[in-house]
Write a structure and sequence with these properties.
The protein contains 2 helices and 3 strands; from the N terminus they run E-H-E-E-H. It has 85 residues and is an alpha+beta fold.
Length: 85
């Protein structure tokens, strides 16, 4: 994965970056926004924390699938995960 270099160091080039995926049908867009902490309402911080948690859970779920595929190749099985509320 290569990162596309910005042609000039203007305001937008520091905020937006495109990561080109040579062998994929898509590229990855990175967006950086610098927001002064004093301007962020507490509700926004709460939503951001919840969004981060969901992204991490998504990553965990993907890793579980990859691990299950590897274990399946080795002929081993993983116990079924049951969530109890």
């Amino acid at each position: 994965m290569e990162k596309k270099e910005a042609r000039k160091e203007g305001k937008w080039e520091r905020m937006i970056e495109v990561e080109e995926q040579a062998d994929a049908p898509y590229d990855v867009l990175h967006l950086r926004l610098a927001v002064p902490k004093r301007l962020l309402p507490e509700e926004t911080k709460t939503h951001a924390k919840a969004a981060l948690r969901e992204m991490l859970l998504t990553g965990r779920s993907l890793l579980d699938v990859f691990i299950e595929e590897l274990e399946g190749e080795e002929g081993t099985t993983r116990p079924e995960r049951i969530q109890v509320d």
